[in-house]
Design goal:
The chain has about 375 residues and is of the alpha+beta class. It is built from 7 helices and 23 strands.
Length: about 375
Amino acid sequence: MRSQGATQPAQSARPADGEAPLPELYADLGQANIQALWTQAEDLMPRSPAPRAVPWLWRWDTVLALAGRAGQAVPIGRGGERRALALANPGLAGLPFATGTLWGAIQYLNPRESAPAHRHSSAAIRFVLQGQGVWTTVDGEACPMARGDLVLTPSMTWHEHHSGSDEPMAWFDGLDLPLVNALDASFFEPAAAGYLDAGRAAPARSRSAALYAHPGLVPSAAPATGRHSPLLVYRREHTARALAEMAEATGQGDAELRFADPVHGRDALPTMRCAMRRLAAGTRTPTTRSVGSSIIVVFAGRGTSVIDGTAFRWGPGDVLAVPSWCAVDHEPAETAELFVLSDAPVLEALRLDRTEVLNQPQAVTGAWSGG
């Protein structure tokens, strides 16, 4: 029992905002490596996604010219054993990432040149934009590459590139590198000295294509792993035929196909979605926005995309960055094909995916004027 003479706590013991003890509290919190939620709640939990990456476009002519110069000046072996020009989004403070979760680059291989084997935690895709006569070897499987082909190099698979051509080759590289780095899950391992699968002609067909590239038919035996698609090469001829037949069957000006694991039906890679979209001339797509970012590589055709109010005019080989929750619509001036790489499988697995279709086309407030 408290004695009648005991002193009661003063009612003013808790200082009001702005009084002298508050700065002292913040100083003591800083010394203890503690931060007060009420000073940063809007930054930690914005009302909607607030990506640092900005909508952007890289011109094919500009990137290819720079890649050609790099081919003359920089030998294979520097910068992770590849001659790749990373597409650096200007909103990411100098980081070599196209969006906050996706790494995009143009890789350039000189005639009769080889890039040595290595492997890493980040999964990668190659979408060929120019050339033929090159192959990528993935865990010992030689995968031929030609314009429009998609080649997978799943996480921690050994891979190397070889040219049997007299012409240079350029392709788009897409990796989940920013995401893997953010998770502190990145490993990189070069192959042992002398490990190189060079010195032979480009193969006509990959082993995985012989097993898994037949529509509706798969081997009765299970693939060696279920972590990614057992089909490592998706050939342009199959993609083109599927898009054309889908467009004809549906009568729609907007046809989109997803590159899938032929055995399990899910995305070809667990962290990145690969898709091909065919837009007929005169089509304007609905304005949509989605949680998660994407990179769009123009394979064919010309048109305009409006991303968060900025109009970007594009042509073959150009690359667009679409950050998370940016409103976007497309209007081709001629029939166009777009290769789309996104982080959708990760958002869906975490149940963070969300897409909205806006009621009306967005107003154009600016036009991209980069080089």
